[in-house]
Design brief:
Oligomer: single chain
Shape: globular
Distance between the termini: 71 Å
Number of helices: 23
Bound molecules: beta-D-glucopyranose
Strand content: 15-25%
CATH architecture of one domain: 3-Layer(aba) Sandwich
Number of strands: 29
CATH topology of one domain: Rossmann fold
């Protein structure tokens, strides 16, 4: 591929390329402002009043470019196209190269590697009229080359610093490979494990999801937009995408405004307020209006209520799909609806490119609306520093140094082991002795291809450490590996060999789960058990009488009551990515004491779904002894494993929490303390969780809501007092009149190691 040397790109190039000469005064002002140093922070005020000099300079630089653009070039900045996947990396379609040359496409996605992006950038800089740099985006969801656990897995770590660091490494690697923008974080709350995309989010809880959303934005964007180790974040999928009816991807979302605001919107808001530069619309409709044409979402809530100043991009062809939704007659009308809603960039649909000029000519949209969208895009290109140096992210030496760097792998190993959740450990089957003779069984035991999960960036599964490799590297006993069966299908011909290996061993470790493509986009499942004959394989191994340690590798909560009952020990290991085998060996042999806690409820049966911890009490709360209460007649209401649940190789004891006052006034902060003691024989970390319940509200309130947590390390026998501060905001909600605030009255403050096992203290707000 043709290489060009690093060329400093100056806005003066824009001026020298102009086919006309603007007024001298304007030129001087424009030049002075356009050449001024890059601005690196998002403005505090979008009103014009009280703007900083840097913000004013940035605005003038943007406007000085805008003033020179043709309508076609403006619409080009609102157009995003994908490149294709070739056997050796990304490739570009001829038509798109032509679009770039004519200024008809201002951004590309799925284009990565310094070599590939440099060549495309060269076309934009050397062969277009205005030399406006391209923006390169990619789905860097849980790693670029070094692949971290899937986001749902990382959420199980409840370690915000580690999550931020993982996002930062992913961004640093991607930025070293020519990228500017990731389509992450996905912050869609979901209570429905049938929905395959639960793997990409932080689970079911609004509060935890919001904190993780902030951590991911901080990690992705770093300290400054424009640093060469950071990317623009894109909060997605706005909004409500995680609540499709029936858990079926892309399906309608319909719920009360109260639920929407209380449970689903806060993580998007938290991410926006953490400074996320861009937002992606969702595929679904909400309250009858598809997100990509929803002005209430994209303008009223996002920009007016939350003060978002970045740009909004559609999801892949979701603008076009508004014709299928049946809210517009054709694609031209879809483009008009989107632009008027506040959507700035069209991902892959080509609608703005094909129809917006006509819509403007017909008076269906205004030039001011188009200009505003273009400004938002140019603004971020300036903030990234691309006008000053369009090749600043194309440094082949940096790319070589950073991708899969040993320190990145070490961090991945650490967060991977923190993401593992110990769900059962009978007879202290775990940890294993290092010299144990192990029968290692199961379709995922010596597998690499599935370990990087779905949305695996530029990851190569050959870089992964398999479970077999990890155990061999850490153990000293014999390890006999037998696959036993595949993830899917009915073939049991490998069972006999697996059983024979089990009979010879001290302990059986069996790795079962889902293939990577069974979770993620367009991967809704109506059944939530283990696919194929895997559970039968486990039963055959259990029948040998040997202890059976089940390691689950999957992208969502599974309904596996029988598997859980028959296993001796059960570990949820999600898809952990590059360092899978090492992280699992650390946990299995006890070099790391597991500390993960479920960020999403595991149901007993798909019939319970949606099942989540922060439900309303109802008028007839569950009573196992009374038929006429809210329950199933064939199964308890309780889940298989509740939200926040996870064991350790040690045990923890909680005191009853104590509040510093039992009565407090509105506006005051209340402090709650609990003493947590490590009652076992090993050092271990515990996620101490704080929940509240408002006992009487103007509307019904959840029976518990997470409002805080602290992850603490305790030595054997050590006890520590843990303090939580509860503010009025923590007790606030959307009241009957939809105003947000707290109401005086009684509250239960609950503390414990998971959402189903809590001790409480009552307080009253006056
Ligand atoms: C997904 C988005 C993703 C986009 C670009 C869509 O199908 O819904 O999450 O960012 O594709 O790859």
């Amino acid at each position: 591929m043709h290489q060009t040397g690093l060329r400093r790109f100056s806005p003066t190039l824009i001026f020298s390329a102009l086919p006309f000469r603007p007024a001298v005064l304007f030129l001087l002002l424009g030049l002075a402002l356009a050449l001024a140093p890059n601005c690196s922070s998002v403005p505090k005020s979008a009103t014009g009043a009280g703007l900083s000099a840097a913000e004013l300079r940035l605005r003038h630089r943007v406007d000085s470019v805008l003033a020179r653009m043709t309508l076609e070039e403006k619409i080009g900045q609102m157009t995003l196209f994908t490149t294709d996947w070739g056997s050796t990396g990304p490739t570009i379609r001829e038509g798109y190269t032509d679009d770039i040359r004519k200024g008809r496409c201002g951004a590309l996605f799925n284009s990565h590697s310094t070599q590939f992006t440099r060549e495309l950038q060269r076309i934009a800089i050397e062969e277009t009229r205005l030399k406006i740099p391209l923006l390169f985006g990619f789905d860097v969801i849980h790693g670029y080359k070094t692949i971290f656990p899937i986001p749902l897995g990382e959420a199980a770590s409840w370690d915000l610093a580690a999550i931020e660091q993982s996002a930062h490494i992913a961004a640093a690697e991607a930025a070293a490979a020519g990228l500017h923008w990731t389509f992450a974080p996905m912050v869609d709350i979901s209570r429905d494990p049938r929905w395959g995309r639960v793997m990409e989010g932080a689970g079911e809880d609004t509060w935890l999801g919001s904190r993780i959303a902030e951590a991911r934005v901080r990690g992705i964007q770093g300290k400054n937009l424009g640093s060469t180790d950071a990317l623009l974040a894109c909060v997605k999928h706005f909004a409500g995408y995680g609540a499709p009816v029936g858990g079926r991807d892309y399906n309608t979302v319909d719920m009360s405004e109260r639920y929407f605001r209380e449970y689903y919107l806060p993580p998007y808001e938290a991410a926006v307020k953490a400074g996320a530069a861009t937002v992606m619309t969702s595929f679904n409709d909400y309250d009858g209006v598809p997100a990509s044409g929803n002005r209430y979402l994209m303008t009223d809530i996002l920009r007016k209520e939350w003060g978002f100043t970045g740009f909004v991009v559609t999801d892949y062809t979701s603008m076009n799909e508004m014709t299928n939704h049946g809210v517009v007659a054709d694609e031209k009308e879809a483009g008009e609806l989107s632009l008027r809603a506040g959507v700035d960039m069209d991902m892959q649909g080509g609608i703005y490119q094909r129809f917006l000029q006509k819509s403007l000519a017909e008076g269906k949209v205004t030039l001011a609306e188009i200009d505003e969208a273009v400004r938002r895009v140019l603004r971020l290109k300036f903030m990234l520093g691309l006008f000053d140096d369009p090749y600043k992210f194309c440094d082949a030496a940096r790319e070589k140094r950073l991708l899969l760097a040993p320190e990145h792998r070490a961090t991945a190993r650490d967060i991977s082991r923190k993401s593992i959740v110990l769900l059962k450990n009978e007879k202290n089957a775990l940890p294993l002795a290092k010299n144990a003779n192990i029968a290692l069984v199961g379709p995922l035991a010596d597998n690499k291809s599935e370990l990087i999960g779905n949305w695996n960036g530029a990851g190569n599964f050959n870089d992964c450490i398999s479970l077999l490799e990890g155990l061999k590297a850490a153990g000293t006993g014999t390890i006999k590996h037998v696959k036993g069966c595949a993830v899917e299908g009915n073939d049991k011909s490998g069972f006999a060999e697996a059983v024979a290996a089990a009979q010879q061993a001290d302990v059986v470790v069996v790795a079962v789960g889902e293939n990577a493509m069974m979770s993620g986009e367009a991967a809704a499942r109506a059944e939530l058990g283990l696919p194929g004959v895997q559970e039968e394989l486990v039963s055959a191994l259990v029948a040998t009488g040997k202890p059976v340690v089940v390691v689950l590798m999957n992208g969502r909560p599974l309904a596996i009551p029988d598997l859980a009952a028959q296993s001796t020990a059960l570990l949820e290991a999600w898809w952990l990515g590059t360092e899978t085998g090492h992280a699992l060996a650390d946990v299995l042999f006890g070099d790391y004491n597991p500390s993960g806690k479920l960020p999403m409820t595991f149901p007993r049966s798909v019939g319970q779904v949606p099942v989540f911890y922060n439900e309303r009490n109802t008028g007839r709360p569950y009573d196992p002894n009374s038929k006429w209460t809210s329950k199933y007649i064939d199964m308890p209401n309780s889940p298989l494993f509740p939200f926040g649940y996870g064991l350790s190789y040690t045990t923890f004891d909680y005191s009853t929490p104590v509040a510093d006052r039992s009565v407090f006034k509105k506006g005051e902060t209340i402090q709650v303390s609990v003493t947590v003691k490590n009652t076992g024989k090993r050092a271990g970390e515990e996620v101490v969780q704080l929940y509240i319940r408002d006992l009487v509200g103007s509307v019904t309130r959840p029976v518990k809501e997470l409002k805080g947590f602290q992850k603490i390390m305790l030595a054997p026998g050590e006890a520590r007092s843990v303090q939580f501060r509860i503010t009025e905001k923590d007790l606030s909600f959307y009241r009957k009149d939809m105003s947000f605030g707290a109401e005086p009255g009684e509250f239960d403050i609950m503390v414990g190691g998971n959402s189903a096992d809590l001790k409480k203290v009552k307080v009253r707000m006056e």
